[in-house]
Every structure is written in C-alpha cells, then in structure tokens.
Amino acid sequence: MPVLTIFGWLTDLVSGEWWTYLLVFGVALADAVLPLVPSETIVILAGIAAAAGGLEIWLVILAAWAGVVLGDNLSYLLGSKVGEPAYRRLFSGDNARRHYDWAHRVLDGHGAWIVPTARFVPGGRTAVTFSAGTVSMRWRRFFLADLAAGLIWATYSALLGYVGGKAFESGSWKSYAMAFGIAGVIALGGIVYWRIAERSEARKPGSI
Questions:
Q1: Residues 49 and 21 sit within 8 Å (Cβ to Cβ)
Q2: Buried b / exposed e along 93-108 (16+ C-beta atoms within 10 A)
Q3: Distance CA 51, CA 48 (A)
Q4: What is d(CA 84, CA 47) in angstroms, rounded to the nearest whole number?
Q5: In the structure, what pLDDT confidence band is assigned to residue 1 with cuts at 50, 70 and 90?
C-alpha cells in the first residue's frame, strides 16, 4: 500500500470522536512490542485534531502517556520472563539486533539514561525496554525512568501536532508538513546520536 494512501487512511481514522483517545492509548501500547505500529504518527494527528477543537490536548497527552508506559512495562516483562524466544521474534533484523546489543550493554552498566533517549530513535524503544528486563534492571528504577520518558514523548508528539494545527489551518498540508518535518529531523538526530554512541561504546576496551 502506497505511503500516501496509508497516511490518508490514518488521517481519516483519527477524528474528533471520543474513541480517538482509546485509539491513541491502544496504538501507543502496541508500539512497544510491534514497532511497525505508527504511534507517533497517531499522536501527532490527534494533536492536530485537538487544535481544530475536536479533542482535548491534555487528554491526548494523558492517553498517549498511559499507553506508552503500559506498553513499555509489557516489553520489560517479556524481556524478564520470556527472554530468548521473544528476542528471536522481536529482533530478527541486523539493525534491530545491533540496537538491542548496545542497549543491553549500556543498561547492564546501569545506564538508565538511555530509557528517555531511546524514545526518539526508530526501533530504540523496544530495544531498550526489552533489554531492561533481560538484564534484570530493577523494575522500580526502570518504571521511574520510563514515566519521565513517556511523559516527554507524549507531550512532545501531541504538541507537535497541536502547534502545527494552530499555526496553520488544521488539516492543511502546512500543519502536517510542519509537525512531521520537525519529528523527522528529531528522529534523524536521534539516529545519528545512537550511531555515534554505539561506535564509541564499541571502541572501549573489552567491548565485543
């Protein structure tokens, strides 16, 4: 299915109806273990709908925050309780396994700081939350870091759409271009940051 067709379908799906909050919650949750689910796209579109007056922006943020935290904890539980079988299914690609291996090493060295930063790297969220469970990171420590990470992500994504919708006529191509353009630049920055950090980690003595 062409990208523009998928985007058009998602745009039609996100409306000013009350059930959009449930959609935001469900997609944010599912994206933790199914990275192909476009959670950020849905939240941004919901933010644009809020700018048009169809939704309450604070409820969009709350729904996204609740969904992302619950999904992250599900991913943590999979890593902690299921381990290897789940790993083979979630990280079948080379790029996904590279992210996982690096996240695993950092978290094993008590680097909880990557929980928030992973939120802005495609595929990084699942790699970090799952590996936090496999390295037996204390759940309380993970949960507190994840609460902050989830709130930052939910607020940022929803406000991108909201500000774009307020800056231009909600639903116009300019509001979409502004919101998704900024999101794309930040995602690219996150990828570059992770690549640099991965290479730096690999050069350390004792790294594989």
A1: no
A2: eeebebbbbbbbbbbe
A3: 5
A4: 38
A5: very low
Global pTM? 0.77
Instruction: Look up residue 11 and give its two tokens.
Output: 């745009």
Query: pLDDT digits over 85-118, tens only?
Result: 666 565 666 666 666 666 666 665 555 667 777 7
Write the single-letter amino acid at 65: W
Distances (CA, A) of 25 to 31, 59, 67, 198: 10, 10, 4, 32
Q: Which two tokens stand for residue 71?
A: 């999904």
Please write down the HEC assignment for all residues of 44-65. HHHHHHHHCCCCCHHHHHHHHH
Cα gap 208→203, rounded to integer Å: 9
